[in-house]
Amino acid sequence: MITKKSQSLFWRYTVNFWTVLLFIIIIRDFMLRGALENLLGPAAAIYVASLAVYSAEKEFERWQDYRIGRHPGEIYVVLWTLLLFGLFVADYLQGSDYKISSEVISTYIVVLGILALTKRSKNLFIEKHNV
Q: Rounded to 5 degrees, what are φ and ψ at 96?
């Protein structure tokens, strides 16, 4: 039997797995000067889809007053920001002509958007329930 807790844990582990894998692909693509660009799109799409499902499930749990713990979405934004900043700095210091893939930038924007939506939902929940 699939419980709410096991389902939520599945999506959290899935997002964490795809986060790590996508970061590895992005860093290797940078190191290999775009040689893995063909993997970035599919990996980013799977990551975004799993993050969207996980975030939606967490919001549903919040509104159903079912909580299995806190896992702040800001962590993902901080990690993404550090990754992109690191790539920009490394590229500048190396003086290379590497171009960060549009899939990577788009994924970062989606991560920011998902965080903004979940923050807004959280604020609405707090206002409605006087938490």
A: -90, 175
Q: Specify the pTM.
A: 0.85
Report the C-alpha gap between 42 and 14 in whole angstroms. 15
Q: How many domains does the chain have?
A: 1
Structure tokens at 73: 């979405």
Mean pLDDT (the chain, rounded): 87
- Residues with Cβ < 8 Å from 111, sequence gap 6 or more? 51, 76, 77, 80
Instruction: Check: CB of residue 31 under 8 Å from CB of residue 38.
Output: no
Dist CA 37 CA 103 (whole Å): 9
Q: Is the pLDDT of residue 60 over 90?
A: no
